[in-house]
Amino acid sequence: MKITRRGFARLAAALPLAGVARAAVVSEPDVVIVGAGAAGIGAAQTLIAGGRSVQLIEAASRIGGRCFTDTATFGVAFDRGAAWLKGGAANPLAGFARLHRFEIGASEARELTFARGAQAPLASNDGYERAIVTLSDAIANAAEQDDDIPASQAAPMLLDDEVRSWAATASAMIGPLDMGVDLNTMSVKDWFGLEEDDGNRLVRQGLGTLIARIGAGLPVAVNTPARRLVVSGRGVAVETDRGTILTKAVVLTPSLGVLTSGAITFDPVPDPAMFAAWSGMQMGLLTKIAMFFGAGAPVLRFAADSMLIPQADDERGHVFHVRPFGAPLAICLVGGSLAWELAGQRDRAVIEFAREKLRALLGASGDAGLRNAAVTDWGRNPLTKGAYSAALPGHWRARAALEAPLSERIFLAGEAQGGKAAQKVHGAFASGQRAARRILKLLRA
Known about the structure:
- The chain contains 14 helices and 21 strands.
- The chain is globular.
- Helix 2 (38-49) runs parallel beside helix 14 (425-444) and helix 4 (126-143) packs across helix 6.
- Helices cover 32% and strands 20% of the residues.
- The longest helix is centred in the last third of the chain and has 20 residues, at 425-444.
- The chain is an alpha/beta fold.
- Strand 3 and strand 4 form a beta hairpin.
- It has a six-stranded mixed sheet with strand order 6-16-17-18-15-19.
- It has two domains: 5-63 and 215-281 and 389-444, FAD/NAD(P)-binding domain, CATH 3.50.50; 109-198 and 286-377, Polyamine Oxidase, Chain A, domain 2.
- The two termini are 29 Å apart.
């Protein structure tokens, strides 16, 4: 059925508020935005500033998408999804943070490397630094060639024993723990096209809290998944579990994992070029196992915002982010195939995995004082089906192909289309703004 103005008002009254966003109040909006994450919020702001009415619909019970600050589990801010403001002062979201009086960290996390069997960080580690530089240079050189190959094929011959001993750790940091995929499925050209993560900073109140604050006041209908988009000569019918909304254009922001799963169908179906773009992408995964410790726990002896990096045997490595903004947390991060493997296990087993790794790093009492723990579920979550996108080898042009509208009225946006800032929150936000500007131009015509 079509949701009329009166019916839509009744629907709005029945919807719960999503964080700081208000419930839906717009009937037959100019534009429907599917998804109220960073991309959807950026699109909504731009369209409203351009004089257009909008309606955001969100399948989850909250706004923010893959930006979600959990303050209930531990009593302190824990970003279950994106956590870092990347790019320093050049990141426009930093301006929003200052505007809304959020506290941004003064420095990046301090990296502390641990050799195998050591229970104290190395005073310095030239071998690790040179391994990172050597592997990065090899991948960059491969990316400048004609063919787009897996990063694993670009790995250099290492003749230096010290560098060789840290090669697996470097591979873990560059592939699974950064891109969310193993080197054998990582496109060298996709990696090379992304900006470097200079100036990473945490937000004390949580990056998810900041994104929710930016979205305050926007018309959002939560618990309202889109099921089918039907384009006709007059516009688009957006079919949801709560009825059908008629609109002139759509900004579509769900993850590529959701779009390729068939959770949303299209009439007419997308052209073969878009299906080719979707099939050329994959969802990477980064999983966080957060552990809350009591005072005096051994792991809390490190300075706030320390990154503990154990020497790895292979690229399926892990790191520990200790005391983010001084909170009594140790967050074990795993990525790529290891993260997907753990996503198939119960949380209890995943937490034990992290405790075992902490004991291996700091000794038998390394996990002493543990009070509570939680595991992120982006891989299992049907509303995300992964953490962020990565191109498959040979398909690095797929990101650009995602810019083509579907049936001239449906525009995709999200972290996959962030350009040099792909995989990042500010890239998703800018992608939503760009899609909105294209729609403003369409509607003026």
